[in-house]
Amino acid sequence: MIEYRSVGKTFPDGTQAVASFDLTIPSRTTTVFVGSSGCGKTTLLRMVNRMVDPTAGQVLIDDVDVATQNPVALRRSIGYVMQHAGLLPHRKVVDNVATVLRLNGTDKKAARERALEVLRTVGLDESQARKYPGQLSGGQQQRVGVARGLATDPNILLMDEPFGAVDPIVRLELQVELRRLQTQLDKTIVFVTHDIDEAFALGDQVVILKKGGEVAQVGAPADILARPADDFVASFVGLDKGGRSLHVEDRDGRKVVVDASGRPAGVLEG
Ligand SMILES: Nc1ncnc2c1ncn2[C@@H]1O[C@H](COP(=O)(O)OP(=O)(O)OP(=O)(O)O)[C@@H](O)[C@H]1O
Fold first, then answer.
1. Pair 151, 249 in one domain
2. How far is the CA of 257 from the centre of ligand 1 (A)?
3. Any residues with Cβ below 6 Å from ligand 1, and which?
4. How much distance in Å is there from the Cα of 16 to the middle of ligand 1?
5. What domain range is 203 assigned to?
6. ipTM for the predicted complex
7. What separation in angstroms does the CA of 112 have from each of 94, 116, 135, 146, 151?
8. 169 and 262 in one domain?
9. pLDDT, tens digit, 9 for 90 and up, residues 132-180
10. What is the pTM of this model?
11. 50 shares a domain with 9
12. Ligand 1: distance of its center to the CA of 212 in Å?
């Protein structure tokens, strides 16, 4: 479990990124921070592994304040996946993944074996593992980024807009893949995005943020859609202009669900 208790962050230049933030993130679930640019998502995410230290309040992992932990050891014990995969271009894919393990003291052979195993988990084979990052597509590079985040089998995986730089179709594929991985691996995932559809697709718990890390609403996607807290949330999730409204039409005895613009979204069963 990760807990934010009255957490604030003011950067040395006086920018207040987060005013006062409280949240509990249950273990083995996916929590998504979603909000527009500059609302403090990345700052909040990075407080978990001490890439950013709060200037007020506490962040606790399983009841232990991260401020009491060695930052380097903490960072190595938590998976981190960033937007542009962040791979070393002159090192083969397998070595990019093995590097984290080597830093943790795993010997070379075991590190390579584990790297290949975790690359297989994210859908990459041995021939791709032997390539350099630049020889892979953007979507494949992101898979390598995820593999690297998972290499040490951390309990917590932090993901900062990991699918932001790939095209929409690959992005959907990666979302499906992450959901599959989550069922298989059971990690505590904290995921940052500014895309509400992505947040709803991935989050067990979705945290909609306003500027300064202010929480507009926290909840399961269906609950947010059913009961948006205010007009800001309704508009952010696309309820205000009928963007998500669906209705049922009878077509040859089948109940077809149709969106506001008349496009079919599916068929009602039962
Ligand atoms: N090192 C820093 N020094 C000063 N201000 C910072 C620093 N890092 C972030 N900020 C500011 O803090 C606020 C929150 O930034 P943060 O990156 O957490 O937002 P975000 O929601 O992740 O945005 P984006 O989606 O654009 O990445 C912004 O106003 C940003 O400019």
1. no
2. 40
3. 11, 13, 15, 17, 35, 37-43, 194
4. 9
5. 2-239
6. 0.94
7. 7, 6, 19, 16, 10
8. no
9. 999 999 889 999 999 999 999 999 999 999 988 788 888 898 899 899 9
10. 0.92
11. yes
12. 9
